[in-house]
Amino acid sequence: MRSLLFALLIISGLVTATGYGFLVSARSGGTETPGRALYVTNCAGCHGVSLEGQPDWMKRLPSGRLPAPPHDETGHTWHHSDKQLFTIVKSGLSSIAPGYESDMPVFEGVLSDEQITEVLDYIKSTWPDRARAYQADRSKADPM
Ligand code: HEC
Question: pTM of the prediction?
């Protein structure tokens, strides 16, 4: 009787340990996407490692320009279609708002089209369902 209990304990311990290990590796695999690495290198300096943006991002700087907004759901990145976001990152804000002066760099020649898409996919992957659904609708109405 004792040895049977002991065997059961070992088996359930093994199941828990392996199941847990699987979950942990699946999770960490999700955060280290190529898009995340590109984001940290190229965007996080202004938009924040946790996509939190610059402090007081709605208040103009002494230069009259705006600070970098957050890319999480508290910002307005999710209000834009894929086409708009891609164009902003590749060609700059002035390409959709001519004459607009901004500290947002132009990434043409720095990131390939695929890399821009990967960065944007990473940003989108952090949004809650509501923001993702809204942004997907905007993208459908404004195809690439
Ligand atoms: C040197 C600082 C800086 C870096 C680096 C930077 N940005 Fe920006 N970004 C800004 C600023 C400042 C704005 C706000 C510009 C404005 O409204 O005048 C902005 C705006 C944006 C917007 C428009 C947001 C909106 O809600 O309208 C997008 C999209 C964006 N950035 C994406 C990126 C991505 C992706 C990267 C990296 C590949 C990046 N930015 C790197 C400073 C930066």
Answer: 0.83
